[in-house]
Design a protein that fits this description.
Radius of gyration: 18 Å
CATH architecture: 3-Layer(aba) Sandwich
Strand order of the largest sheet: 5-6-7-3-8-9
CATH class: Alpha Beta
Shape: globular
Distance between the termini: 45 Å
Order of helices and strands: EEEHEEHHHEHEHEEHH
Largest sheet: 6 strands, mixed
Number of domains: 1
Bound molecules: adenosine-5'-diphosphate, magnesium ion
Length: 257
Amino acid sequence: MSGGPIIVMDRVSKKFGDVPAVEEFSLAIEEGEFITLLGPSGCGKSTALKMIAGLLPLSAGTITISPPKSGAEQDLGFVFQEPTLMPWASVFDNVFLPLRLAGVGRGDGEPRVRNALKEVGLSQFADYYPRELSGGMKMRVSIARALVTRPRILLMDEPFAALDEMTRSKLNNDVMKLSVDHGLTVVFVTHSVFESVFLSSRVIVMAARPGRLTADMPLQAPWPRGEDYRMSQEFSAEARRISETLKGTLHVDNIDR
Ligand SMILES: Nc1ncnc2c1ncn2[C@@H]1O[C@H](COP(=O)(O)OP(=O)(O)O)[C@@H](O)[C@H]1O
Ligand SMILES: [Mg+2]
């Protein structure tokens, strides 16, 4: 499966006017990794993710995604913090949207939409409208929509921050399973230490002003991880280790100001 990094960011910088949102950010991500970008608000996590997605031009540096896919095939799926569903369209039509935009007909698209809905546990809800769904279910629709084009890379920007703790844990379990089943490479943004420790193969700690990478911390616990891991001493120890690194980062940040 692996043959060198799938995403390479080389000294990537982004300025908004005079504000350096991300500075000299370098990171190589191997295929199948589950990377979290962890850091305080304003440290450039969303900016970094949008640049990987090609949604924001870089001010300097390069991002290489290899090998690039040709044609209308989507290589990247993006899940935002808000589910961003079309309120007037059914769950089915919301998930079908990226296929429709890629020129796939309804007949060809239908089995793929049904399959994506099944994978997020929403087979029974294809004809529902977003207003009829809970926050967690809306997020599941958003994940199905990101996966329906079968991307190799899934980018997620604080997708579960607005959800209650139980829903969030459940979705963490499901995203981990999906990423293993599909051999996805995931870049996941969060400011939750626990979420990062539970999900990731590697945590990238970032600091603000300017947004930059301050620590690159691999996590060894084998996948897939479940409730046993969440309750384990290893989990607590890793959470403490990452938490302390993050605090160190914030401390440096305060001195800088
Ligand atoms: N479109 C924009 N215009 C101007 N400044 C922006 C814009 N987007 C982000 N920023 C600034 O860039 C920095 C990083 O923002 P962001 O990537 O959203 O951080 P995070 O996602 O880690 O909270 C912040 O200082 C933010 O105010
Ligand atoms: Mg953000």
